[in-house]
Inverse folding.
């Protein structure tokens, strides 16, 4: 009997032949052996109770533990199996589809597709969850078996699981693994790994039920999809559920309707946004702010069409790499055109329209460029995922020696803008090529080195902390991604600053250098919001609809106490309008209490209440939407304070 030599982190040792993966982990790390959910053996995922394979050379083991992404995947995937087991237990004859873990979906952590003998309703979810809890408490083992293809097919045929048979037929050659959960009717065809037993699943919740088709194909079997989520501890689950409740209250689709900001109507097409007057005002303010900043930072403004010849998209590479996301071509007089999914090639056209010298650089082109993407209907979600949207786009054409300064300026710009919108936590990620000198990356090594160094230096010079992610650069260049944390702690990926070695090459961009020779410029793609629609959705949820004064669709509501005061109310409103504010006088013959409630519901920052006393003294009683009564004030004083709020784009409604 020989031993198996093992590497665990930076330690090395050996375990006897026949030892399990868990035995080996115990040998090196007691704590990890208690919390481990599964493991990686030479990079391959393994169940803990599997025998350690005896290979040439040392076997490298890494425990998959809680609070890691791999750990979460094992946990959630195992919970999906538990869900299927509970459904099979409660509803014999149920057919199973697939049940993956979801790690990046903000709403759910896993699902399982099922066809039960009688369709389920949401009212059945608590019962299923309870059965899952009962099974979890019994520490039922997940048992793995390696079986020949013919045998697996037989197993699932016996169980009348035609969909599983179809999947096995397609995916398996030779043999594959099936998993059982002991003492339950559950068997699944799966690669694993799973937690060793159901007792590891301590915090899960079923969340929703929806329709689904087998393989997402509307021609195929209709199934029901049960959604749930799972965390490592009850505390984590509770905190997440609380955040979810808070998020539901702020749902931008709900607020969009209540505040009359935008709509999506089936007659016009899913994923296409109609901006209503009140949403339009907010957007105009957002764009005005951005335009001001763009001018400050010396960008030029360009405008480009929504379609271009198909051949252009061949040159840009979109026809080859991006066609699935583009709307189909349309033909005009034998020439094919396609809607643009990106603005970049158009700005390149402007750069190429004349000969550029080193003295002309940088060129900074900005555009609110509307683009179209052929997203599948199932992926559309309010303003967050749409088919037509406007990018606050900019492309910078720069000399290599200008990259550092230009990227630095983009960073200052971004920090300034996100601060104004009240995002207190802004996170920066620098994605670089990494160690694995991967062939998928395009461009010269020295260009990459220079660009990556410039991006890092620009961040460091500003004392901006950032996460460096090796190997995550785009194939055409390194990038900085900007993520913000909203008022309830959710993270949104928004802006990006990307260097591109690909398009300048494809389009043969040049400038004449000081040496009188042609040189290739660096191209930088830069967007802060990404999509204006999506950013508006994020803002709406971040502020829970209560926009700061400068953005609010209606900034001031004048509310007369009785009809006698209507005329005075109108004159106050007129004075405010003249001073440049968005104001509404509510002269309907409602009680003032009802008028206040209305204005509160519409989240109007200030209510000016006027009655006999105010008329007599020529002043107003000011009420702020969250602070309530602020006392009386002259119209002039109010205008002065409000003008300050507007000019400074203040987040508070502090008039003083
Ligand atoms: Zn599985
Ligand atoms: Zn671009």
């Amino acid at each position: 009997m020989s031993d198996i030599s093992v590497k665990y982190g930076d330690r090395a040792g050996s375990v006897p032949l026949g030892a399990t993966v868990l035995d080996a982990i115990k040998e090196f790390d007691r704590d990890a052996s208690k919390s481990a959910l599964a493991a990686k053996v030479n990079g391959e995922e393994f169940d803990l109770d599997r025998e350690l394979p005896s290979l040439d050379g040392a076997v490298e083991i890494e425990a998959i533990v809680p609070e890691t992404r791999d750990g979460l995947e094992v946990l959630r995937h195992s919970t999906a199996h538990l869900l299927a087991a509970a459904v099979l237990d409660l509803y014999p004859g149920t057919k199973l589809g697939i049940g993956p873990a979801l790690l990046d979906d903000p709403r759910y952590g896993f699902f399982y597709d099922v066809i039960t003998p009688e369709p389920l309703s949401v009212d059945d979810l608590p019962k299923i969850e309870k059965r899952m809890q009962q099974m979890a408490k019994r520490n039922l083992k997940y048992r793995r078996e390696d079986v020949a293809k013919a045998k697996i097919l037989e197993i699932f045929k016996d169980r009348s699981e035609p969909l599983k048979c179809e999947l096995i037929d397609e995916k398996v050659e030779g043999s594959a693994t099936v998993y059982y959960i002991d003492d339950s009717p559950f068997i699944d065809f799966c690669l694993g790994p799973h937690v060793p037993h159901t007792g590891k699943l301590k915090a899960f919740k079923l969340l929703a039920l929806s329709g689904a088709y087998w393989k997402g194909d509307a021609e195929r079997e209709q199934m029901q999809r049960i959604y749930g989520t799972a965390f490592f501890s009850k505390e984590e689950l509770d905190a997440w559920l609380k955040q979810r409740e808070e998020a539901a209250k702020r749902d931008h689709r709900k607020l969009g309707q209540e505040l009359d900001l935008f709509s999506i109507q089936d007659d016009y097409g899913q994923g296409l946004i109609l901006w209503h007057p009140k949403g339009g005002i907010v957007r105009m303010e957002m764009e005005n702010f951005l335009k001001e900043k763009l001018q400050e930072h010396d960008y030029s403004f360009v405008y480009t069409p929504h379609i271009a010849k198909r051949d252009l998209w061949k040159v840009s590479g979109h026809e080859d790499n991006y066609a699935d996301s583009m709307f189909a071509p349309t033909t005009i007089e034998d020439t094919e055109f396609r809607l643009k999914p990106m603005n970049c090639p158009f700005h390149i056209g402007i750069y190429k329209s004349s000969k550029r010298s080193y003295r002309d650089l940088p060129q900074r082109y900005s555009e609110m460029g509307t683009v179209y993407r052929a997203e599948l209907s199932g992926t559309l979600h309010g303003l967050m995922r749409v088919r037509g949207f406007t990018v606050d786009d900019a492309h910078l054409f720069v000399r290599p020696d200008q990259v550092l300064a230009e990227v630095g300026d983009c960073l200052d710009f971004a920090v300034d803008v996100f601060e104004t919108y009240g995002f207190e936590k802004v996170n920066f990620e620098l994605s670089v090529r990494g160690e694995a000198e991967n062939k998928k990356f395009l461009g010269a090594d020295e260009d990459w080195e220079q660009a990556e160094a410039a991006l890092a230096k620009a961040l460091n010079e500003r004392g901006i902390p950032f996460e460096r992610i090796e190997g995550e650069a785009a194939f055409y260049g390194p990038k900085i991604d900007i993520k913000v944390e909203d008022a309830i702690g959710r993270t949104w990926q928004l802006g990006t600053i990307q260097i591109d070695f690909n398009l300048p090459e494809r389009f043969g961009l040049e400038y004449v250098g000081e040496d009188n020779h042609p040189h290739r410029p660096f191209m930088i793609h830069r967007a802060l919001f990404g999509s204006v629609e999506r950013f508006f959705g994020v803002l709406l949820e971040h502020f829970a609809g209560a926009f700061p004064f400068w953005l609010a669709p209606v900034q001031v509501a004048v509310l007369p106490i009785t009809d006698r005061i209507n005329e005075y109310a109108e004159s106050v409103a007129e004075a405010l309008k003249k001073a440049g504010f968005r104001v509404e006088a509510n002269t309907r013959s409602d009680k003032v209490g009802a008028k206040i409630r209305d204005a509160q519901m519409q989240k109007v920052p200030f209510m000016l209440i006027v009655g006999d006393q105010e008329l007599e003294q020529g002043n107003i009683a000011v009420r702020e939407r969250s602070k309530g009564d602020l006392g009386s004030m002259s119209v002039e004083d109010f205008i002065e304070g409000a003008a300050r709020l507007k000019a400074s784009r203040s987040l508070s409604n502090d008039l003083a």
About this structure: The mean pLDDT is 94. Residues 77, 81, 179, 188, 190, 192, 194 surround zinc ion (ligand 1) (CB under 6 Å).
